[in-house]
Write a structure and sequence with these properties.
about 300 residues, mainly alpha, 14 helices, disordered C terminus
Length: about 300
């Protein structure tokens, strides 16, 4: 399997895993936990899982001063992104929040193009537009669902800091395993959330008091955190920030699937068309990485020329 194919698969796994964030968070909110507590336990259990993996693999925990600075930056960016995203669930429907969060691939592409002169191919631009059109169809507006300004701003801040996180991962010269990198990023996140909770009188850390709290806290630590971040880091190094970000279209798609299958939400033709457009956009990115665009055009051209003009 080539590096590009592996990177594509890892990007898809990362996006789908990250899309399960609202599932665990909303269940924990129903149990009475606040945003800071949900995130703290998410990162705490994730750090424990990653530390165990590093210990089994006999990986060194040592860091240089330069690595520490980079990892601290990544940790702070991811902590801000997570906190603003989870807080937005109190102001917006989780599906809408996940939909708005998808603007981060556009932010990644713009940042890479403006500051690092990365070329945007025609396929990438078309895929972004197609995916965004599909995302727009996933939004089901109505009188019972409004867009709260505070919630929208929180999600946009989350998208920007997540985009910066991906760019820093891609552009940094740091060399270490994805497990080790994710471990230290989440360790910084855990400390940052603990400090934020201790300084804020409205968001103190709360204990886990029920088996349901423990289950969903561990689920959040494993699926949308450890699995998603490790595979995302590997995908970025394999195929770059922009293709990995574009595959993030599967995140809100996952949120819709969870809503339909878990919470019994209606599946409409509008949703079906939106999902189809997103899948086509992702498949275009996969195809453009595996087969050069000019070769596809050549094959299509030969096929068209071989068809008789007066065939009935």
């Amino acid at each position: 399997m080539s590096t590009k194919v592996k990177g594509t698969i890892l990007g898809i796994v990362s996006a789908v895993s990250y899309g399960t964030n609202p599932l665990g968070a909303l269940y924990l909110y129903r149990e009475g936990l606040n945003s800071s507590s949900v995130l703290f336990y998410r990162f705490l259990f994730a750090v424990i899982i990653l530390a165990g993996i590093m210990w089994v693999q006999h990986q060194s925990f040592r860091l240089s001063r330069k690595e520490l600075k980079t990892l601290a930056t990544l940790g702070i960016l991811f902590a801000v992104s997570s906190l603003t995203f989870y807080t937005s669930f109190h102001y917006l429907d989780a599906g809408i929040a996940a939909t708005i969060l998808f603007v981060y691939p556009i932010m990644v592409a713009v940042i890479m193009a403006l500051f690092f002169k990365e070329h945007l191919s025609g396929v990438s631009v078309f895929s972004i537009l197609l995916a965004l059109s599909g995302i727009a169809l996933l939004y089901r507006g109505g009188s019972s669902v409004g867009l709260n300004t505070t919630g929208v701003v929180l999600v946009l801040v989350s998208a920007l800091t997540y985009a910066l996180y991906m760019v820093v991962v891609n552009r940094s010269s740091i060399v270490m395993s994805s497990i080790k990198l994710t471990f230290y990023v989440l360790l910084v996140c855990m400390v940052a959330i603990a400090l934020q909770a201790s300084l804020g009188s409205h968001t103190p850390l709360q204990p886990l008091t029920t088996p349901r709290m423990w289950f969903f806290s561990i689920m959040l630590a494993l699926v949308p955190t450890v699995i998603s971040l490790v595979t995302m880091t590997q995908a970025v190094h394999a195929i770059g920030s922009t293709p990995t970000a574009i595959m993030g279209a599967l995140e809100p798609l996952t949120a819709v699937v969870v809503g339909v299958t878990v919470f019994g939400e209606a599946f409409t033709l509008r949703l079906g068309i939106g999902i189809f457009m997103i899948l086509v956009a992702v498949l275009l990115i996969i195809a453009s990485k595996a087969i050069p665009v000019h070769k596809v055009a050549t094959v299509i051209g030969h096929a068209l020329r071989s068809v008789p003009l007066h065939r009935r």
